[in-house]
Every structure is written in C-alpha cells, then in structure tokens.
Design goal:
By secondary structure, the protein is of the alpha/beta class. It has 3 domains: 1-57; 59-111; 116-428, tm_1862 like domain (pyruvate-formate lyase- activating enzyme, Alpha-Beta Horseshoe), CATH 3.80.30. Helix content is 42%, strand content 20%. The chain has helices at 32-54, 71-79, 84-93, 99-112, 147-150, 154-175, 194-208, 228-236, 251-256, 263-276, 294-307, 336-352, 383-390, 422-445, and strands at residues 2-7, 10-16, 22-28, 124-130, 132-133, 145-146, 179-186, 215-219, 241-243, 280-287, 311-316, 356-361, 372-376, 395-399, 403-407, 413-417. The strands form 4 sheets. Strands 12-13-11-10-9-8-7-4-14 form a 9-stranded mixed beta sheet, sandwiched between helices. It has a 3-stranded antiparallel beta sheet with strand order 1-2-3. It has a two-stranded parallel ribbon with strand order 5-6. The protein binds iron/sulfur cluster (SF4). Iron/sulfur cluster is lined by residues 133, 136-137, 140, 142, 144, 186-188, 221-222. The site of iron/sulfur cluster has 11 residues, from loops.
Length: 446
C-alpha cells in the first residue's frame, strides 16, 4: 500500500507491505510536473526497498530502473541542467543504482553527447531490414526467415525493397535531407549474394547516399554467408563497418543453438574481411548460452582477442517469447552472480583491448537482470547504434521488420513498422508506400 501525506510544504510518501515492512521518504513541493515525476520515483523506490527487506532479496545493480534505454534518463537530466555530479547522485539515491552501474551510465552518456545534433530531422539515419538468414538460431526473436524454407519469397521481397529505396531516395532529395548513416540489418543481409546483392548495393549508393554520409554498416553476422567475393562487393560499395558474430567460440554450443557455422568459419571470414580492407569489424558475443559457464566465456574472449576486432558487442542472453529457447528455460538458467562475473570478464577484456563502452540497452528476461553493451576502439564507435538507441534522430526504416522513428524537436516519437514477413512486406509496399512517404514528409515539414 502507498500513502501520500502533505506536511508543511513537503509530501511524505510511505509504502507499507501488509504485516511487514514500511518505508517512507519526503519530497519538497515544487512545480507540478517535477513533483509528479519525483513522487513516481519515490513510490517505485519504496516498493523496491520494502520487497527487498521483506523477502531478503540481494540488491539489484540496476535498482529501480527497468527500461530498455537507461542512458535516456541521464541525457534528460543533463538537458534539464543537472551537472554530471548531480546526475550520478540522482542515479544512486533516487534510482538505487549500484555505483558501478551509475558510473557506467554516466561514462556512456558522456561519450554519446558528441553524436547528438540540434535538429533531429537533419541529418537523418537509414535502416534497411533484410529478413532472411541461413537457418534460425534457437534464441532468435528477430525477423529472420530461413532461405531454405522461404527462398521463394526473395524475388518479390527484393522488388518491393527496390521500390521503397527509390521512394525514400526521391523524398530525401525533395526535402533536401542529409543521411548520416546507413545500416543494413535483419536477419543477415549477406544471406543475399551475387547479382541480387550487387544490384541492391548499387541502388542504395545511388538513392540513399548523400555527400555527408559518414557511416555504412552491413550486418554480416553469420560467417557461413561470407565469401571473398561478397566481402569484396561490400568493400567496393563503400561499406565501412561489418559485424561478424561468433556469439561463442565453442563449436558444440554453436551447433546446439542452430547456427550452421563453426569457429573456423568465423576465423576465415574475419581474415577475408581484413584482406579486402573493410575498415571496422564488430563481433557480437552472447553470455549465458545453454551449457556455457564462465570458463566458456573466458575461452571465447581469449579467441576473439587474438583476432583483434575494432568493436565488441556483449549481449547477455535474453530469452524472448518468440524464440524456441523459451520452451527450454531451465536449460539457460544462470545465477545472477555468474551472469555478472561473465559481464565483468567481457568488460575487462574489452577495456584491456583499448575499447570503451559507447552504447547500452537492457531487455526483459535478460540474463541475471544485466545489460547489453557495445564497446569500441577509439574513432570506431557506430553512429547508427547511438542514434538508434538514444532516439534523438529520425531513422527511416525500409525493408522487412524495419521500424521508422520520426523524432520531433521535443524528442517525442512517432513509429511506423514495416511487416516482418517478406510476403506481407511486399503487399504492404504495394498498398501503403505512398501513405508512408506522406507521413514522413508531413513530419519533416511540420
Ligand atoms: S543470425 Fe541473428 S537474425 Fe539470424 S536467426 Fe540467428 S539470431 Fe536470428
């Protein structure tokens, strides 16, 4: 139960658990909006504390923060005039964060400020979703249709995507917008090869590149989709950043989660990417994969360290409803302490390689209540990752599963989702392309 009482210019917030614990704190009466925000924070904090005491729960490093994008709170406090010192204190006191997590948030947010622009609609970012993969990983909840079973949809999908790229290109020229970054994700875009890939890359270059485009990334996560020819095409098309994602450097785990490649495939693809001269290579790993403990993570990090990637993205396993792994939750249970030890090991490795954390996010059902963190060596942090996570820039998303985010100057957001299924997407483009372009045009001109 929560009680709110008013005493001499102060609001007292009290939280009681029947027959159990009690907690209270006060907030000075001030402007209504700020007061309401503080009251909500205190109620959350009170409930958190009372439950912790009543059920003897270990303190959670993320305190009362449950959102996907915890850095947004830091940016919003900074925008409203708080100093870095005050922000750290707010995170510790109002949100009950551990000092380590508070320092991490402040550190990441400081680094991100350099990426922000005064106008959320110029420059903008582009995302293109290619919803195909060689096979579906057991933990996957993305738009990823195996080419083996859904290959018959590829032709129609590519045709619809070409129409969408041309429409967005024409709109950007009409509105005279700069494109800061282009990101091909999915799925695994490099599931598409040969002339299909070549034509797609040429069209992107012709329609979407502007003189100011600083970053071009392609998710090439599944190493078995890569060849010297494909990597050469990416390089020649101006791609500066790719992801080759081992997830783990244990063949047995890779097989058990339904990935069709080996650790040797990872090493081979990586050396080809270096050979053709792709400037920045990111590698993703997942902590807490079924059957893996701290020793496995240590081995994975040692092997990745030998390759010397420019970025490392560390995911803590999140078992979502849409994944096959959800059905076998017991297999992946990992105690918080072990999850945290894995996260710390990954952090120490990344810092030891000269990287720093530059974006982070959390998910529901994430391993041990932890987080996902992107690390980068100097000058290699991804612009797109920061903009997509902090939602301070309009991102126009094309292709399957793409989520367009139209950001206004007050940082409010309007979303427009493209369907994930390639067949539904093709139909959506036939029926709704003009309406989508009108929505973007209206937003940018308002
Ligand atoms: S490679 Fe990524 S997108 Fe493709 S199935 Fe695996 S997790 Fe999903």
């Amino acid at each position: 139960m929560t009680v709110r009482t008013q005493v001499q210019g102060e609001l007292i917030i009290s939280v009681f658990l029947e027959g159990g614990q009690e907690w209270s704190a006060s907030v000075k009466e001030g402007d209504a909006e700020d007061e309401e925000r503080r009251v909500k924070e205190l109620v959350r904090l009170g409930i958190h504390r009372v439950f912790q005491a009543c059920y003897n729960l270990a303190p959670s490093p993320w305190g009362t923060l449950t959102g996907v994008r915890p850095t947004k709170i830091v940016h919003s406090l900074l925008d409203s005039g708080s100093s870095w010192h005050q922000i750290r204190k707010t995170l510790l006191v109002n949100y009950d964060l551990s000092p380590k997590k508070a320092d991490l948030l402040v550190d990441v947010a400081k680094r991100q400020r350099a990426f922000f622009h005064s106008d959320p609609n110029n420059p903008i970012g582009i995302y293109i979703g290619i919803p195909f993969c060689p096979t579906r990983c057991s933990y996957c909840s993305f738009a990823a249709y195996p080419l083996t079973s859904h290959g018959h949809l590829l032709k129609g999908f590519l045709s619809a995507l070409r129409s969408e790229i041309r429409a967005v290109g024409a709109l950007l020229r009409e509105l005279n917008r700069k494109v800061e970054s282009i990101y091909l994700g999915g799925g695994t875009p490099t599931t598409i090869t040969g002339s299909n890939l070549g034509e797609l890359l040429s069209l992107i270059e012709k329609e979407l590149f502007t003189a100011d485009t600083k970053e071009y990334t392609v998710e090439a996560g599944r190493p078995e989709t890569l060849s010297l020819e494909t990597l050469g095409m990416l390089k020649n098309a101006g791609v500066q950043r790719i992801s080759i994602n081992p997830q783990t450097m244990h063949d047995q785990t890779l097989e058990s989660v339904g990935r069709q490649h080996t650790t040797d495939d990872v090493r081979r693809a990586y050396s080809w990417a270096r050979q053709v001269g792709i400037p920045i290579i990111n590698m993703d790993i997942i902590l807490g994969l079924p059957g893996e403990g701290l020793g496995h993570v240590e081995h994975t990090l040692r092997e990745i360290g030998l390759l010397e990637p420019d970025n490392l993205t560390v995911h803590s396993l999140s078992v979502k409803r849409a994944s096959r792994l959800k059905k076998a939750l017991d297999e992946v249970y990992i105690a918080h302490a072990e999850g945290e030890a894995m996260v710390n090991l990954a952090r120490d490795s990344a810092l030891g390689w000269g990287m720093t954390p530059y974006y982070l996010y959390r998910q529901r059902h994430i391993l041990g209540g932890l987080e996902n963190i992107g690390y980068a060596r100097p000058e290699t942090a991804s612009i797109y990752n920061v903009q997509m996570m902090e939602e301070r820039q309009t991102i126009i998303a094309l292709g399957g599963g793409g989520m367009t985010k139209l950001v206004s100057s007050d940082l409010s957001l309007v979303r427009h989702a493209n369907p994930k299924c390639p067949a539904t997407y093709s139909q959506h483009i036939t029926d709704g392309l003009t309406e989508k372009m009108n929505q973007i045009r209206t937003h940018i001109l308002e």
